[in-house]
Amino acid sequence: MWVYEKKLQYPVKVSTCNPTLAKYLMEQYGGADGELAAALRYMNQRYTIPDKVIGLLNDIATEEFSHLEMIATMIYKLTKDATPQQLREAGLAEHYVSHDSALFYNNAAGVPFTAAYIQAKGDPIADLYEDIAAEEKARATYQWIIDMSDDPDLNDSLRFLREREIIHSQRFREAVEIVKDDRGQKKIF
Amino acid sequence: MSSEKRSFSSLKSYVPRRGLFDPCPPIGYKYYSTPPNLYLGFQPPGLPQFSPQEALKKGTLWKVFYDYYDNPYRKGGKGRG
Question: How far apart are CA A150 and CA A42, in angstroms?
Answer without folding.
Answer: 32
